Structure formats: structure tokens, C-alpha cells
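Milestone M4 deliverable, item 7.
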Amino acid sequence: MSASLIELQAVFKIYRMGEVQVAALDSISLQIQAGEFVAIMGPSGSGKSTLLNILGCLDRPTQGQYILDGEDVSQLSREKLAHIRNRKIGFIFQSYNLLAQSSALENVLLPIIYSRNGGHAKSKRLERARAVLKAVGLAEREKHKPAEMSGGEQQRVAIGRALINDPPLILADEPTGNLDTHSGQEIMQILDELHQRGCTIVMVTHEAEIAAHAQRTLHLRDGRIELIHVNGTGQPDKAQQESFQ
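Output delivered:
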């Protein structure tokens, strides 16, 4: 079995609202293996976004441990978390989050530009960015700005940006949420291909047919893992479900 890329141990995230404490995450324990594709589902307020923020090192748990690729990142400084994000995590957002005045090529290059160890020759950086754009089917669109591309094409650029530093983990937050059915299917085909190549993907979605692309679906409710469903079997993974109760 592959080694765990992600391990959460009794993770809480507590917010204060006046004198009231609200547990957005309530003792979440979870392991995700390297190369696994996992979907996260749940109603609004279930903790999906909070969990993704912690997995993406955008936030820190109030209590508990988060071990990413063998390193405890639970209480690292903001500066160190930013360094971890740049090296180890690629983000795909529902709203693409592209720079409007930059071309597809320039948007894909951004993580390398901001990388501490991005001291590659410009020719090498451009070569890598063009290879990534080709991989997502946009080799002929590198000079186009977001306004000149469809939603599906913009999301492909976002996927290319997520891949440019070759991170071990891809986090996708509703990657098909703003797309029509056909474009959404194209994006999921790209994610399926990335998974087949060995990428670890964690994806938040509201759509059961999109979650079905993953190997497992975690169902959250009230900040806890309510159910873990092994996709393709029609049966919940009872052993893992019980281990988190």
C-alpha cells in the first residue's frame, strides 16, 4: 500500500462568535494515501471549506495534528505554510482565480515566479509552462487572456497553474461548479488522467456524479465525518467509518 500523504489526527477547528464557540471541525481523523483520489461532500456548514483550507495550509487547526508528506504542519508560521503551499500543493478553484490582464501562459507561470526555489532559467520556465498547457489541451491558446477563453478553457489554465510546480497534492474546490455539463465532463477527464498518472487529488463537490470519479467520498455533517463511501461498490467503508467515530 502507498504511504499516507495526508494524515489528520483528532483535528478541531473552533471559531469564537462572541462568547459562543463553534466547532467547524470536530475531531476529524483521516488518512489519504499517495496517489488516491478522494471527494468531499456535505451540506452547507458541514465543514467542507474549513477542511479544505486546513489541507491546503491556508489555515491551521485549533487542536490536533496535520501531517503532510511526513511533516507536521499543524502549527507552522504563515511564512512556512506559504512555502509548503508553493512546493507541495496545487489549487484548482471554482471561480478559476486567474489574473484578468495576464495571458494563459503568464497565469500558469505564477507559482514558479513566486517560488523560493524558482531560480530556473527563463527558457526552462517557459518550456515547462508550455508543456503543461499542451497537457491540458491549450497549446494554441497560450497568448489568450481569460476574457478571451470559455469557462472550460479558463479552468484548464487553472489546472495547468496547479501542476506547474509538480506538487504531490492537488486540491480542487468545486472544479466544475461554474461549468456546463460538457465542459465539466472535460475537466473531470483531465482530473481522471492526472489521477491515473499518480497524482493525489482531494476534491470538494456538491454533485454525486462528479464525486463518483473519486475512489472514496467523505460525507461531512456538523464538522464530523458522517460516512466514508467507497465508490463503485455501493457500500460504505464501514471499517474506516467506525474508526473515526
